[in-house]
Structure formats: C-alpha cells, structure tokens
From TrEMBL:
Highest classification ranks of the organism: Eukaryota, Fungi, Fungi incertae sedis, Mucoromycota, Mucoromycotina
Superkingdom of origin organism: Eukaryota
Stored SUPFAM superfamilies: Ran binding protein zinc finger-like, RING/U-box, WWE domain
Keywords for this protein: Metal-binding, Zinc, Zinc-finger
Region (Disordered): 151-182
Domain WWE per the UniProt entry, residue ranges: 26-112
Regions of compositional bias (Polar residues) in chain numbering: 154-173
Protein name: WWE domain-containing protein
Source organism (scientific name): Jimgerdemannia flammicorona
MF GO annotations: zinc ion binding
C-alpha cells in the first residue's frame, strides 16, 4: 500500500500532504519553502499571501518563463481536481499577476518570490558598503564572503549564475552579479540593511518584511 508523505504544521500540528507549501488548516507557510529558489503565492485578502502547492507553483513558473505566454490555465496540484476553473494572467512589464476564476470572473492578486528577483533584492555594489555594514544581518558572515546558509547546505542553489554552494571565497570583494552570495538590500529600507542575496531571499519567503527593521515589503 502506498503511503502519501505528510508533514506536520509547525504552528497547529495539522498533517498536510507533502505537495503543500502552506498548512491547509491554518495557512502558515511551511518552513522548507524558504529553501525553494522560486515560490508563487496568491492573495485571499489584503493582509495575507498563501503559497501555491509545489505542483501548481512549478506549472506557473514554467508558463512565466515563456515570454510569449501571457495566460495559462491551472491544471496541476490542487487544480488537477478543478481543471479549467482558474487561469493566471501575466503582465510582466507592470510586474502584475492575477488569478482569475473562469466562471465567476473573480480576480485575486498573485506574486512571485524568487532568488533572482532584482526588483525586490536590489544589488548593492561592494564598493559602496562601508566597513560598519560589512556583515550580513542574517547569517552574520562578512558580505565579501559566502553566505553561511549555503555553506551549511541549508539553501538550494537554484541559480545558474552561482558558484558551488560549498565553495568559500574569503577575502573576495566581488561576487558574480546574480550570485546567491552577492550583497543586496530591500527596496523600502534605509542604507545599512544589507544581506547576502540567499539569506534575505529565504527570510522574505516566510515573512514579507525586512528582518532588521520590520518594514513590510511592497511588491
């Protein structure tokens, strides 16, 4: 007999299917979601975002990566039992994505959280960072060295421009643009709140605010 893998919600202990990235009881985001290079979420109300399950998120990302495709029908994961009921529309220029119920026309905002999103993870040239701010506020390693999250194997590389996760480069004052190790900031924060790309990317996938000052990220 096949046993479907389950995971227990860290908040309410409800057992969920492994495909889920949010608890289906309390909707808390699963902690391992932070390690995924890309996560798609939908908005049930103005104060909340809920990740799509793994299969649906993969399906959306595949369509998003095709610049000729501005609309796709959801058919995987949860939507496998509700085929044709929902579509996702992509306006890449405006960074505006919506899910539309094909029957009622109801629209819900959709967003993409990704390690490669340079509109949220804004690259900061190393030369502009003073010595007083040369520490990643999350992993506490120097910004001119590699993220300790990657060194400990806790993060998925998920980025073709990144070097090997376990390759240390102490003393190196540059990381390749797009690398998970490069220095970034969030758009709403004052100068001084600097992180390795992968460190803060993981943090905002679980809570969409600056880990230092708590300011909410506006997408």
């Amino acid at each position: 007999m096949n046993i479907t893998p389950k995971w227990s919600c860290e908040s309410c202990t409800f057992l969920n299917n492994d495909n889920e990235l949010a608890c289906t009881m309390c909707f808390r985001t699963r902690s391992i979601a932070r390690e995924l290079p890309i996560q798609w979420e939908w908005q049930p109300n103005t104060e909340q975002w809920i990740p799509y399950d793994k299969a649906a998120s993969t399906e959306i990302e595949t369509a998003f990566q095709n610049p000729q495709q501005n609309k796709m029908t959801l058919t995987q994961g949860y939507f496998a039992t509700h085929p044709g009921e929902s579509e996702v529309l992509f306006d890449r220029a405006a960074r505006s994505f919506v899910q539309v119920n094909t029957g009622s026309g109801r629209r819900r905002a959709v967003r993409r959280l990704a390690n490669d999103d340079n509109s949220v993870l804004i690259r900061v040239p190393r030369a502009t960072i003073g010595t007083d701010h040369n520490i990643c506020a999350i992993c506490q390693n120097r910004l001119d060295e590699t993220s300790l999250l990657l060194d400990s194997g806790e993060a998925s590389s998920g980025n073709s421009g990144d070097s090997s996760p376990n390759e240390k480069s102490p003393g190196s004052h540059q990381h390749q643009e797009g690398s998970l190790h490069e220095s970034v900031r969030l758009p709403q924060c004052a100068p001084g709140h600097y992180f390795h790309r992968v460190c803060v990317a993981q943090a905002i996938k679980l809570k969409d605010q600056c880990p230092m000052c708590g300011k909410k990220i506006v997408y």
